[in-house]
Amino acid sequence: MLHENEIQVDEDVVRSLLKDQRPEWADLPAVFAGAGTDNTMYRLGDELLVRLPRTQGNAKALRKERTWLPRLAPYLPCRIPEPVHTGEPTATFPAAWSVYRWIDGEVAGPATVSDWATFGRDLAAAVRSLHAIDLMGAAREGELSWYRGGDLGPCDEWVSRSFQDCRDIDGLDLDLATLQQLWRSALRLPEPAGRHGWLHGDLRPANLLAHEGKLHAIIDFGGLSVGHPDAEHAPVWDLPGEARQAYWDSANLDEVTWLRARAWAIGVGISGVPYYWDTYPSFVRECLSRLTAILDDARRR
Predict the structure, then answer these.
(1) 249 & 150 share domain
(2) Structural domain for 86, as ranges
(3) Any domain includes 236
(4) Can you tell me the distance from the alpha carbon of 55 to that of 239, in angstroms, rounded to the nearest whole number?
(5) For the chain, which ranges sit under pLDDT 50?
(6) Which terminal residue of the chain has fewer beta carbons within 10 Å of its beta carbon, N or C?
(7) Residue limits of the Aminoglycoside phosphotransferase domain (predicted)?
């Protein structure tokens, strides 16, 4: 359990949903395929993936994915999820749920990526393509107005609170003073300007699939929004240095955008440490690795 009011799910729940709403799939093998902070997944047969939100709030993303992913997919150089069914809430599972086409690939990491510099360039190309897609009438409002497409200032209250929560964790070996200084210095930067664009919202390695050593797919568009692109670049600190440098060179980002992206990386990472400290140790390690990479980069500059 990662969140309050989390919905319990297992294979029996999946089969119950399928029998009620897609009986033609109910007898296919259903195998647990992983879980993130927002969703639990089951592979269904060879060609499908069932995605079940951990909370009712997480289910809000399904409608925008169903609406927008088919429109975005033709313009991107890599695969993205293809919705094939949006399920209705039931007494067994009281939230909307979804089924997508299965995408072959493995989470990007040392064992699955053969050339990190190429991976960084390919990721930058995919991000550029996404940001360049016409908004097709969409605007930064409602379900497409996630906070990561906005300004840093409104986030300072919860980020500062997360720094304090980290100070209260016994045994946390992290240079919080330097990280908070970097965060506060970014708050003094000019606010982002320019046109809004499409944003994935969470390009961490868990949402990047590699196949035959290369970037193959970007998954989990639950954070899909319209806004400024600064936070979109933040997860590059989750990648090895050569991928980060290649991304920087290929994306041709100016220094101020890079510093704001770094601040977003700090804010999201520092909030994840205390929130998941007791419940999701692998995610905490991911956050700590990101924050350590930021500190290492800052010391080299």
Answers:
(1) yes
(2) 11-101
(3) yes
(4) 29
(5) none
(6) C
(7) 33-262
Q: What percent of the chain has pLDDT over 70?
A: 100
Q: What pLDDT shows up at residue 61?
A: 85
* Domain final position from 74, 101, 128: 101
Q: Which residue type does 216 have?
A: H
108-115, long-range: CB < 8 A, 24+ apart: 108/205, 108/208, 108/209, 108/210, 108/215, 108/239, 109/205, 109/210, 112/210, 112/213, 113/210, 113/213, 113/214, 113/243, 114/212, 114/213, 114/214, 115/213, 115/214
Cα angle 245, 248, 252; round to 5: 145
CB atoms within 10 A of CB 172: 15
| Same domain membership, residue 282 and residue 162 | yes
- Last residue of a domain, which of 68, 84, 101? 101
**pTM of the predicted model as reported, rounded to 2 decimal places:** 0.93
User: Is residue 67 domain-shared with residue 110, that is, in the same domain?
Assistant: no
Portion of the chain with pLDDT greater than 90, in percent = 88
Q: Give 185-240 pLDDT, tens digit per residue.
A: 999 999 898 899 999 999 999 999 999 999 999 999 999 999 999 999 999 999 99
- Taking alpha carbons only, the member of 278, 183, 197 closest to residue 234 is 183
Average pLDDT, the chain: 95
Asked, for residue 194, whether it belongs to a domain, the answer is yes
d(CA 234, CA 265): 5
